[in-house]
Structure formats: structure tokens, C-alpha cells
Amino acid sequence: MTLSDARLSTRIAIERAGTWLLRATGDEFIRLSVGAQPDPYPAYARLRARESLYRNKLGAVTATFEHCNLVLRDRRFGVQRTDGRLPRFFDTLAMARGPEVVQSFLELDPPDHTRLRKLSRPAFGPARLDGYRPLIESITHDLLDRATAKDNFDLIADFAGPLPIRVISELLGIPPVDTDRFLGYGRVLAQALDGITSLRLARELRTATDEMYALFRTLMAAKREHPEADVLTQLTEAHDAGELTLPELLATCELLLVAGFETTVNLIGNSTFALLNHPGQWGLLRDDPGLARAAAEETLRYDPPVQQTVRVAHEKVELAGTRIRENELVFVMIGATGRDPAVFANPEVFDITRTPEREHLAFSSGIHYCLGAPLARLEAEIALRALAERLPDLALDGTPRRRPSAGIRGLLRLPVRASHGKPLMVP
Ligand code: HEM
Q1: Ligand 1, atom 43, residue with closest C-alpha
Q2: How far is 261 from 378, CA to CA, in rounded Å?
Q3: CA–CA separation, 213 vs 219, rounded Å?
Q4: Assuming Cys at both sites, which of 54, 332, 360, 416 could form a disulfide with 301, CB separation 3.0 to 4.6 Å?
Q5: Helix pair angle (199-225, 246-262), 10° resolution
């Protein structure tokens, strides 16, 4: 064991003991943050109903729409500490990945955040988006042709999973032969984002990062030889013009790739699951596939793929009668905001025809608002429309399995069949 492994091992042990102790005291936030939650929404309601912010040794927890929105938009909060150190948990993740890996712009404050986000923005702007529709439709129908060759199929493994990875790989300029490898890296990374819980996971993460970065470097060389109209070519040119360093470029590619598929799979999966569990709503979509965009939007409110994020106070702040210290962590429970009765009427009802009072926070808010939101919306709309048009009798067919994660909510497995079946309850 190397010295850095020994340090990491000690850190993991301390964090595990801390988590265990908090769990033993019945800490509501820890229960919501460790492992998959079959139904976290009653616990969110309890957090929202408190007079002041919930607080534990890790920081403060915001769960109402108003407070979460405020923290996400208020420039007195950021994602880095004022002393330049990384916030807790992120430093364990950084330790696990090694010193040569830098933070992506999701984990950076201005001015670096602004500079790096700007370089990636053109690829996801409205002007480019319409051009992606034929590509997404063609991948969608190709996947459905293959999936429906069998009577029963797994909506996640056969459809919702491969769709976003194939789309984002195309946009980035990654050849199809490499997409399966990226899928594997993404899984390790997504697990690590929930916390580095073992040295084994840390090693897997390091290997995945090394392999992924080696592949990006090879692709960069290929793009210099044969430039194409893709994001990797653009970023390689920006790098060669001195606009971003090589570690920054690698971190950006990784962010775009992983954010591009680890979340959208769950939007398509959670939407389909909610629709099939509410046959009346599925019937509405089947009768009018034009409701596909609204169905995805309702799922983002009702059962969003990203359940929580975190901010750091850059100065002392008074919030909901609670004083937040400089550099204190504030956990933002995005998953709780879509069902806040102070904002949404009948928030527990899944209704794809609703006219929402406010835009949900599923894509966050403020300067880190999801860069890929228009792309995710387009993919989900095309996917749900295709399901409704081509498989009107789609039904659940077996027990779904949740992914073992609290931060990202979704299913690993969703068995379905294209003919009649009984609705199942949430596992
Ligand atoms: C349903 C699908 C998606 C959901 C629910 C989602 C959600 C989010 C959320 C909540 C954040 C902000 C986290 C924070 O404030 O701390 C975020 C940021 C981001 N997302 Fe997404 N995302 C989705 C799809 C995508 C796609 C398809 C891409 C395309 C590449 C993407 C790229 C990004 C990037 C680059 C950021 C960082 C933005 C920044 O820090 O300025 N996301 N996403």
C-alpha cells in the first residue's frame, strides 16, 4: 500500500465512522443520502415542514423550493471554499483520483467557471439543437427496432441507457466502438459521486479515469489530423489556442460525457415508470403523443434524476432564521422542491397536463444551471413520443430494480412488454 493509499484509507474509515454515527442517531439527512431510497418523498416533506433549516455535523440542509432556489441563485454561495481548499467529500474524491485530475467547471467558481462553461456552450445552444433532432430520432427508432424484436425487454438496458450515450458520443465526436467503455467509466464515476466508501472503489475510479483520459488524448490527436464539427474538435482547437489547459480539457470532456448520459437515462426511465404506474396518464400520452414534452417536464418535477447538490457559503449568511458560517456546506435537496405545496398545487399528483406554477429546479438554478437541459428535454421528448406511438400497449412486466444511489435517482432495470399488463407499485 502506498502512502497516499494509506492516507486515503484512513480518510475513508473516518468518514464511514462519521456516517455510521450520524445514522445511529437517526439523522434524517444521512438516511436520505446513503444508498437507494425506494421513496424519499415523505422524508423530504418532513424536512420541508421544519420551522428552521435542518442541521447536522456536515452542514445545513435546505428542502423548500424557496430556500433551495435562493441558495442556488445567491452569489454569496459557491462550490469552492474561500480558502482555496476543496469542500469536504470533494477532497476525498479528489484524493482518490490523484493530483493530476483537476475539477470540472461544475465544481469551479467564477472566473474559471465562466471561462470554461463559455467554451462548451455553443454545442448546446438553441441554434444547434434543432440539427440534432434527426440524429436522436434515428438512434431512438434503431434501438426500439432491436428492443421490440423480443416480446419482453428491459427499458433501461435496451433503450433508455444506450440512447443518451450514443447521442452524447456523437456530439462529442467519440467513435461508436468506444461508447461501451465510456458506459463502464460512467458507472464507476456515478458511484464515486455518492462517496468513496472503499479503497477498492478508489482504485476502480483511478483506473477508469486513467483509461478515459488516455482515450480522450488519442481522440484529440485524431481530431487535429481530421477536424470535424464536434465538441472534441472545438475544445482541442481552443486548447491549442491557449484558452484552456490539457487537464481542464480532459475534465470538461469527462463532465460533458458523464453528465450527458448518467442523468438522461433516468429521465427517460423515471418518466416511463411513472407513466406506466399511472395508466390514466399513459392513456393521455398514447392518445396525444404531442404531450411527450409535458410528460418529461412533469417527471422532472415529480421524480427528478438529480436529487441533491451542495453549495459552500462564501460569507456569513442568514437563511430561514439560521446563521450559516463562512465555508459551511449547504445541502440543496432538489428532489424535495418539486413537491413543495407552497409552490405546486396537488404536488403529490402526477399529472402530465398540469400547468406548473413555477419551473422546477431539476436542472438546478443560477450560474450552474444545467448546460445540457435543452438536449435532455429533446431526447426525453423524442423517446417518450416514440414509445407512445409505437408501443401503445406497453406495460410493466416484472420487478424493477433501483440503482444503488441516493444522489442520482433512477432504475437499473425496468422489465416491460409491449402488450397488456398490470401496473406495479414503486419498489
Ligand atoms: C435529465 C437530464 C439531466 C439532468 C436532470 C441534469 C441535471 C443537472 C443539474 C442539477 C446540474 C447542476 C448541479 C448543481 O447546480 O450543482 C447540472 C449541471 C450540468 N449539466 Fe446537466 N442534467 C441533465 C442532462 C445533461 C446533459 C444531456 C448534459 C449534456 C452534456 C448535461 C451537462 C451538464 C453540465 C455541463 C453541467 C454543469 C453546468 C455548470 O456547472 O455550469 N446535463 N445538470
Answers
A1: 370
A2: 13
A3: 10
A4: 360
A5: 110
CA 148/CA 141 separation, integer angstroms: 10
Q: Which amino acid is at 232?
A: L
Contact (Cβ atoms closer than 8 angstroms) between residue 234 and residue 252: no
Task: Specify the residue with its C-alpha closest to ligand 1, atom 34.
Answer: 371
Q: Supply 51's cell numbers.
A: 420551522
Provide the pLDDT for residue 422: 45
Exposure letters 124-142 (e unless 16+ CB within 10 A, then b): beeeeeeebeeebeebbee
Residue 1's pLDDT band, with cuts at 50, 70 and 90, is low
Other CB atoms within 10 Å distance of the CB of residue 243: 15
pLDDT at 426 over 70: no
Ligand 1 atom with least separation from CA of 266 = 1
Instruction: Say if ligand 1 is within 6 A of residue 368 CB.
Output: yes
Distance 92 CA to ligand 1 centre (A): 22
Cα separation values, 179 from 43, 246, 410, Å: 37, 22, 21
Ligand 1 centroid – CA 14 distance (Å)? 31
Q: Decide whether any atom of ligand 1 lies within 6 Å of the 310 Cβ.
A: no
Residue identifier of the C-alpha nearest atom 20 of ligand 1: 370
Give 198 or 296, the one with higher predicted confidence: 296
Distance CA 127, CA 282 (A): 32
The H-or-E segment that residue 200 falls in is: helix 199-225
- In this structure, what C-alpha cell is assigned to residue 224? 487535429
Report how far apart, in Å, the C-alpha atoms of 330 and of each of 75, 190, 298, 326, 409 are: 14, 21, 26, 11, 20
Domain 3-417 part of CATH 1.10.630.10: yes
Grid cell 442517531 — which residue? Answer: 25
pLDDT at residue 134 tops 90: yes
Greater pLDDT, 194 or 65: 65
Report how far ligand 1's centroid is from the alpha carbon of 255 (Å): 9
Which is the closest atom of ligand 1 to the Cα of 376?
Answer: 27
The DSSP H or E segment spanning 373 is helix 373-390
* Domain boundaries along the sequence of the chain: 3-417
Residues 285 and 291: beta-carbon distance below 8 Å: yes
Ligand 1 probe mutation, 169, 253, 263, most atoms within 8 A of CB? 263
Query: What phi and psi, each to the nearest 5 degrees, are found at residue 402?
Result: -80, 150
The 3-state DSSP class for residue 322 equals: strand
Which residues, in sequence order, are CB contacts of 89 under 8 Å at separation 6+?
15, 195, 310
